[in-house]
Design goal:
The chain is 42% helix and 18% strand. It is an alpha/beta fold. It folds into two domains: 1-31 and 78-118 and 164-250, Rossmann fold; 32-75 and 121-157, SIR2/SIRT2 'Small Domain'. Helix 8 links the parallel strand 2 and strand 3 (114-116). The structure holds ligand BJW and zinc ion. Ligand BJW binds at residues 22-24, 27-28, 33-36, 39, 50, 100, 102, 118, 157-163, 186-188, 190-193, 211-214, 216, 229-230. Zinc ion (ZN) is lined by residues 126, 128-129, 131, 146, 148-149, 151.
Length: 250
C-alpha cells in the first residue's frame, strides 16, 4: 500500500473523523456480504426476506432466517479491521463510526461512538406493544410471539422501504457534514441514504478515503482509494499514522 505524503498528512492533521462501514469489513470475520458472487442476495431473494411485507406474509420463515444469522454473528469474532477502528477512536479527538452493519462486531471489538444506521440483529421488539426482546430471549424460548400481548416480534433492523432510526441518522449526517476525513470501508455504497454520506463529506470540503477490495461508486470521487482487504489496509494506515504522529515535534 502506498500512502502519499500529502494524504498521510491530511490523515494525521484531521480533527473530525468519520468511518462509514459496510458488510465488507465483517467479511474476513466470516459474516457473508449482501452483493457479489458469494453474497447473501446471490442465493436468497431480498424481496422474500428483508422487507416488512415478506415478514407479514411469512413471519416464521423470516424469523428463522434472522435466528440463523444471529447464530452466525455470535460465533464469529471481530477482525483486525474492527480493531484498527478502535485504535482510530483513540487517536482522533472526534471520531464517529457510522455502520450499516447489524452484526454488533464494532461494539464487541471495543468501539464506543457508533451510529447503527440499519439497526442491530440482537435487538427485537413486539409489533403489538413495543416490548423489547434480546436475541438470546428469542432463541432460548418460544420464538415469534410476544409473551405480553401475543403480537409478532420483529428484529430491530431496517428493511427496504423503512425509515432509518432518526437519532442515528442525525448523528451520522452531522458527523459527515463536519468531517475533515471520512474512511469508507467495505461498502458497495449503493444503498441510500447511507450512500449519500461520502458525498456530503466532499461537498463540505472533507477528504474521502476508500478501503475496498473492489471499485465502487465512491472510487470516482474519493481522494484516495486502497483496494485490498480491510484488515490489512486499515492496520497499515493506523501504523503509519501512529509512526508519523510520534515523529512530530511535541
Ligand atoms: C471488502 C471485503 C474486504 C468484501 N475488505 N472490502 C430506488 C428504488 C427502490 C428503492 C430505492 C431507490 N432508491 C433509493 C431507494 C431506497 C432504498 C435503496 O437504497 N435501494 C437501493 C438498493 C436502490 N433504501 C431504503 O429503502 C432505505 N430506507 C429509505 O430510503 O427510507 C426512506 C423511504 C421510506 C419509505 C419509502 C421509500 C424511502 C432502507 C435501507 C435498508 C437497507 N437494509 C439492508 C438489509 C438489512 C437487514 C438484513 O441484514 O437482513 O441493509 S440491505 C443491505 O444493504 C444491508 C446493508 O446494510 C446494506 C448495504 O450493503 P453493504 O454493507 O454495502 O454490503 P454489500 O454486500 O453491498 O457490499 C460489500 C462491499 O464490501 C463490496 O463493495 C465488496 O467489494 C466489499 N468487500 N470483502 C474490504 N475483505
Ligand atoms: Zn407485545
Amino acid at each position: 500500500m502506498i500512502l502519499e505524503d500529502d494524504v498521510l498528512h491530511s490523515l494525521c492533521s484531521a480533527g473530525n473523523v468519520v468511518a462509514l462501514t459496510g458488510a465488507g469489513i465483517s467479511a474476513e470475520s466470516g459474516v457473508p456480504t449482501f452483493r457479489g458472487a458469494d453474497g447473501l442476495w446471490s442465493k436468497l431473494k431480498p424481496e422474500e426476506l428483508a422487507n416488512f411485507d415478506a415478514f407479514l406474509r411469512n413471519p416464521e420463515l423470516v424469523s428463522e432466517w434472522y435466528k440463523h444469522r444471529r447464530e452466525v454473528t455470535r460465533v464469529v469474532k471481530p477482525n483486525a479491521a474492527h480493531y484498527a477502528l478502535v485504535e482510530m477512536e483513540k487517536i482522533y479527538p472526534h471520531f464517529t463510526l457510522i455502520t450499516q452493519n447489524i452484526d454488533n462486531l464494532h461494539r464487541r471489538a471495543g468501539s464506543v461512538n457508533v451510529a447503527e444506521l440499519h439497526g442491530n440483529i440482537e435487538r427485537n421488539y413486539c409489533l403489538g406493544c413495543g416490548k423489547r426482546y434480546d436475541g438470546k430471549d428469542l432463541d432460548d424460548n418460544s420464538p415469534f410471539r410476544c409473551s405480553k400481548c401475543g403480537g409478532l416480534i420483529r428484529p430491530d433492523i431496517v428493511w427496504f422501504g423503512e425509515m432509518l432510526p432518526l437519532d442515528q441518522w442525525e448523528i451520522a449526517e452531522k458527523a459527515s457534514e463536519n468531517a475533515d476525513v471520512m474512511y469508507v470501508i467495505g461498502t458497495s455504497a449503493v444503498v441510500y441514504p447511507a450512500a449519500q454520506l461520502p458525498m456530503a463529506v466532499k461537498r463540505n470540503g472533507g477528504a474521502v478515503i476508500e478501503v475496498n477490495i473492489e471499485e465502487t461508486p465512491v472510487t470516482e470521487f474519493a481522494d484516495a482509494s486502497f483496494h485490498g482487504p480491510a484488515s490489512e489496509i486499515l492496520t497499515q494506515i493506523v501504523e503509519k499514522i501512529k509512526e508519523k504522529i510520534s515523529e512530530e515535534p511535541k
